Amino acid sequence: MKIAVFIKQTPQVASVQVADKAIWPEADLIINPFDEYAIEEALRIKEKIGCRTAAITYGKATAESSLRDALALGIEEAYHIVDEQFDYLNPQQAAMVLSKAVLKIGDIDMVLTGKQATDDDSALVAPAVAAFLDWPQVGFIRKFESVEQKMVICQRTSDMGFDRIEVKLPAIFSVVKEINEPRLPSLKGKMQAKKASINKMSLSDLGVTPEIRMVVKGISPIPPRTAGEILEGDTDVVIDTLVSKLKEHQLL
């Protein structure tokens, strides 16, 4: 069995600054934090059943550093779909590229990824990849009860608690952060990752030409919160004033 983990390189939220309707290029780039939980879960499954693991990403040359971070944690193979056109690739087109990579790599029985990426928060790539591959897909996984060669039993987070689901492989799963606690890389892992080979693929290798891209018209920081207001006085008057203000702001 082989488990692939989709990872995405995203700006570190704490380092993001917005100026002139654009993100400063100095923002630090890291593995999408939600994808770290997918990496950890792939490693835990590997330790239990002895499967192989691979990390797959798309993006510019800078994305290679995120793949090496995954290798440092214990992932065994790394695949980088490299192209400078990947800026603002919409989720459907990204999913099409990733699905072609899964087919080209071959022998992948299970795909894990984080529930969403912190840059666009779309949560659309995993289900779109499943649609392109015609595989089952389950989102918001909080626990894998068992993983076997042809069947997975998992718990999907729901509004009422969780659903217990049996899924035939191959399939795609997106996980939530409650599923585990990601490990830190060892010094030995970091040293090995520096020397590890990265399997690189181009869009022409995959036989695809993405055409639909998102157009970002502007980026602006979140406006600061206005100061709160404390209502004092007679209880009945305070309640009437509060209700009026809530209606005024269309909160009631």
Which key phrases capture this entry?
single chain; 252 residues; alpha/beta; nine-stranded mixed β-sheet
What do these coordinates show?
- With 252 residues, the protein is α/β, with parallel strands linked by helices.
- The protein has one domain: Rossmann fold (3-Layer(aba) Sandwich), CATH 3.40.50.
- The chain contains seven helices and 13 strands.
- Strands 11-10-9-12-8-1-6-7-13 form a nine-stranded mixed β-sheet, with helices on both faces. The chain has a two-stranded antiparallel ribbon with strand order 2-5. A two-stranded antiparallel sheet has the order 3-4.
- A hairpin with a 2-residue loop joins β3 and β4.
- α2 packs across α5 and α3 crosses α4.
- The longest helix is centred in the N-terminal third of the chain and has 17 residues.
- The protein is globular.
Residue share in helix: 25-40%
CATH class: Alpha Beta
End-to-end Cα distance, whole Å, is 54 Å
Q: Indicate the radius of gyration in whole angstroms.
A: 22 Å
Task: Describe the oligomeric state of these chains in a short phrase.
Answer: single chain
Shape: globular
Strand content: 25-35%
Remind me, CATH topology?
Rossmann fold
- Which class of secondary structure composition applies to the elements? alpha/beta
Helix-strand pattern:
EEEEEHEHEHEHEEEEHEHH
Number of strands: 13
Instruction: Give the neighbour order of strands across the main sheet.
Output: 11-10-9-12-8-1-6-7-13
Main sheet, how many strands, which sense, barrel?
Answer: 9 strands, mixed
Mean pLDDT: 90
Number of domains: 1
